[in-house]
Design a protein that fits this description.
Length: 182
């Protein structure tokens, strides 16, 4: 699996894998496990933990790739490179409601403390593709029915599906209803 990387700058430079893994510290003077960044390797760099950028001269690009690969191999365990999805488990059908969605929407979520992500199995009662690229579903779990949308995804799931989702509020023409966004 290829690594996608975001570079984050403080007084040294750090790299962050875009899948939400821990930081890879590159060139930290106090680090005993990674080499210092060679002076002049990066022309410009900056950003923040969730998005960053760097400018490297074309002649230094291979050196940069090599240094990054070396440090990544030192600091990452094979498990760090395995794609995982952590969820908060299933949500009992009676809690799939506008009241619960409002409670969740009114909380403060942030990096390191994300909004709950639930995973459940649903019966698919209706499905259609909107604008050739968004999947709109009508789902049922027990006696609870709820609408769902997955943006930029049009593969239809069949009669039953397992979803990782956030419980949200859909507002359409002034009417609010609970929705699951996957």
């Amino acid at each position: 699996m290829p690594l996608r990387v975001e570079l984050h700058c403080l007084d040294d430079f750090r790299m962050r894998l875009s899948e939400g893994w821990d930081y890879l510290h590159v060139g930290t003077p106090s680090s005993t496990s990674s080499p210092s960044a060679p002076p002049g390797l990066l022309i410009r760099f900056g950003g923040h933990a969730m998005a960053a950028g760097a400018t490297v001269n074309a002649e230094n690009f291979e050196k940069f790739k090599s240094l990054f690969a070396e440090v990544a191999c030192e600091l990452l365990a094979p498990a760090d490179l395995t794609r995982t999805l952590e969820t908060d488990g299933n949500l009992e059908g009676s809690y799939i409601s506008l009241a619960t969605a409002r409670l969740l929407e009114n909380e403060i979520w942030c990096q390191g403390f994300p909004a709950p992500l639930f995973m459940d199995d649903f019966d698919v009662e209706q499905q259609r593709v909107l604008k050739d690229k968004h999947l709109k579903l009508r789902l049922r779990k027990g006696d609870t029915r709820i609408d769902a949308i997955q943006f930029n995804f049009s593969t239809q799931p069949g009669n039953r599906t397992r979803l990782a989702y956030r419980l949200t509020i859909n507002e359409y023409m002034g009417v609010e209803s609970p929705s699951v966004d996957g």
